[in-house]
Amino acid sequence: MDYVTLNNGVKMPKLGFGVYQTPPEDTERAVREALEVGYRHIDTAQLYRNEEGVGSAVAQSSLDRSELFITSKVWFYNEGYEAAKASIDESLKKLKTEYLDLMLIHQPFGDYYSTYRALQEAREAGKIRAIGVSNFSANRMIDLAHFTGIVPAVNQVETHVFFQQQENHEYMKKLGVQHESWGPFAEGENNFFTNETLTKIGEKYGKTAAQVGLRYLLQCDIVVIPKTVHKERMEQNIDVFDFELTQGDMDSIATLDTGKSLFMDHFAAETAERFIDFAL
Predict the structure, then answer these.
(1) Is 252 a residue whose pLDDT tops 90?
(2) How many other C-beta atoms lie within 10 A of the C-beta of residue 55?
(3) For the NADP-dependent oxidoreductase domain, which residue ranges apply (predicted)?
(4) Which residues contact 90 (CB under 8 A, 6 or more apart)?
């Protein structure tokens, strides 16, 4: 496994295991199998309602806690200083751990400044090793970093070959924020798994379109957290460190970028209205 070093010195595996949309009843088994396969980075969130399953799998594992990197995220219902503080403790309880390696603000809506202060204090108390954000645009990251004095360690955003977040990526590099991809397979949209460009490149290396898509992001210095509940695919997804794409391969895949989200434009006014409606 390869690692990146975050802006506060914490090491983070470049490839992790995501449990978004994994039913609570399946999460424990899926995470247990992922750990058996070799994953050491597990990504969950309060919204996913499966932190308990992750915690149970970790507790049953023979692995030392120091070998693992566990991420969760504060959902915006829990934003605001007091609510965020309480939700961090609740996540720790559900995950059966004394600390989280990374805690993110899940959405750039609500009172995320107060939430960020709660995260900072939790980090100082040893409950969290690194703090960051998710779904933040470059301007929101710049604003948060400047006015709090604490640069987020990570920004987890929708990133895949069809939406490569190139401008956001450049600002993350400039700020020293690690770019992390959610949805690296585009959730199968645009015929991702049979894409002609990815498939043709994969044939040269004996790899699938999915493996090529992951390798591309890794070579762009992006952390990836592919999700699956099938052990054979877990094995396939982690098997991406034994080949390297050429510059020509990289250039070909770069042309797949549409510059647009396939799911939700977090910068659009209607998205803000949607989240506000959720909170009412």
Answers:
(1) yes
(2) 23
(3) 20-256
(4) 46
